[in-house]
Amino acid sequence: MSDYRMNTKCVQAGYTPGNGQPRQIPIIQSTTFKYDTSEDMGKLFDLEASGYFYSRLQNPTNDYVAAKIAALEGGSAAMLTSSGQAANFFALFNICEAGSHIVASSSIYGGTFNLISVTMAKMGISVTFLSPDCTPEELDGAFQENTRAVFGETIANPALTVLDIEKFAKAAHAHGVPLVVDNTFPTPVNCRPIEWGADIVTHSTTKYMDGHGAAVGGAIVDAGRFDWMAHQDKFPGLCRPDESYHGITYAEKFGKEGAFITKCTSQLMRDLGCIQSPQSAFYLNLGLESLHVRMPRHVENGQAVAEFLEKQEQVAYVNYPGLESDKYHERAMKYMPKGGCGVVSFELKGGRKAAETFMKHLKLAAIETHVADARTCCLNPATSTHRQMSDEQLAAAGVPAGLVRISCGLEDKEDLIADLAQALAQIED
C-alpha cells in the first residue's frame, strides 16, 4: 500500500482478502491455535517461522490492524496494546532497564508523567523533565551517560504545546538514542512524526483512531530506521542474546526494521500480557476507515470554538495551535499544516470555581474523562486527570486550576458555540 495516499490507506491498508474470503477483517476470537506437529509449533517458539500460538502475545486480527497503523505512520512494523498507557510503557521499557535514564518533555499527559516519574522510577529508571521550549543547549545538557530514550507528545494533552520534533530528534540521535513520540492527538492524518526524525511512535487508539469511545487500546509503531547495533552497548536487550528466548539476538536476526517490535512482542507481551482483544481491534479498524474523513471536521470545529472563546471576556486565554495568536502556531503550521486536532484548552478568569460553574451548565458537551470522540466532551484536568500532580508540576505542564479542556466532536459548530455561550453566561463576576 506504500504507493497509495493516506485516504486510501485508512480504508484499505492492513488486510487484503483473497478470493472468497471475508471483506471485513476476521475476528479471530480464540486464545490458542492448533498445529499438526510439535516441530511446527517449535519453529514459532524459535522465531524461525511466523504464526500464532497464544493470543496473549499475538493475534491475527490485531496484526491486520497494526499493519494498517504502520502503513499510516510510514513505519516498518507495529503492534497493538491494551491501552495507550501500555503502549507508552512498552515502548520505553523495551529499551530501558534498571539504571537507565529518560529525557522527556514536561508537557505531557498526566498519566504518562506519572508512569515515567513514579512507576518506572520504582523499577530503577530515572527521568529528567524539561520544557518543550528548551534551547538546544539545555536539551543537550539533560542527557546522561545512561540515557536510553527521549520522549514527547506531538500535541500535549491537555496543554496543547507542540513538540519541536526535529529539535528533539537531532538531540536524541546525537547521543545515540531513539526519539519516542506519542502522536495520539494529530493522528497520522495530520502529522507523521517519523518523517521529522522520530524513531518510535505511540498512540492511544482509544482516542481519534477509534473515534467513538467504543474500545480502549494502544499502538506502537517502529520507524525501522534506528541502528541498534551501532549503539549496542546502550541496548543489550536488543543487541545481545536473549537467554529467555533461546539466545536470540533481535537486532541481528530481524534487523533495524523488525527488531524492536519482535522483542516487544516476544518479551514484554509474553511476560506482561497487555494485549488488545480481537473484538476491540475490530472496532478500532472500523474507526480507522473513517479517520481521514473525521479529522478535518474535528479541526474545523476546534478552530471555530477557539476563535469564539478567544473573544469572550470570561476567558483569560485560549490554547489552540490553529490560532494565529497561539504561541505554537508557527511550529504547528510546520508540522501540521492541515491542522492538529479538535481539542481546545482555555483558562477561565474565575479559576476553579468558574470552571465548575461553566461545566455544570453545559448541555451538549458532556463532562467525561475522555477526549477525541465523535461527541463533544469537556474536563477540568486539575481535578481529574492531573490531580496526582503538585501545583508546581501543574504549572510546569501548563495546567492551572481554571483550565478547561474541550474536545470538539463532529456536531455542528454553531450548536457547539451556542452551548458554550450559554454556559459562560452563568459565570458570576
Offer a quick outline of the entry.
By secondary structure, the protein is of the alpha/beta class. It contains 16 helices and 12 strands. It has a 7-stranded mixed beta sheet, sandwiched between helices. Strands 8-9-12-11-10 form a 5-stranded mixed beta sheet.
Could you explain the architecture of this structure?
The protein is 38% helix and 13% strand. It has two domains: 8-286, Aspartate Aminotransferase, domain 2, CATH 3.40.640; 293-424, Aspartate Aminotransferase, domain 1. The protein has a seven-stranded mixed sheet, sandwiched between helices. The chain is built from 16 helices and twelve strands. It is globular, with a radius of gyration of 22 Å. Helix 3 runs parallel beside helix 11.
Give me some keywords for this one.
single chain, 429 residues, alpha/beta, Aspartate Aminotransferase, domain 2, Aspartate Aminotransferase, domain 1, 12 strands, globular
Side by side, the strands of the main sheet go: 1-7-6-5-4-2-3
- Fraction in helix: 25-40%
Low-confidence regions: none
Work out the strand percent: 5-15%
Tally of helical segments: 16
Superfamily at the CATH H level of the largest domain? Answer: Type I PLP-dependent aspartate aminotransferase-like (Major domain)
Order of helices and strands: HHHEHEHEHEHEHEEHHHHEHEHEEHEH
Label the overall shape.
globular
Main sheet attributes: strand count, strand direction, barrel closure: 7 strands, mixed
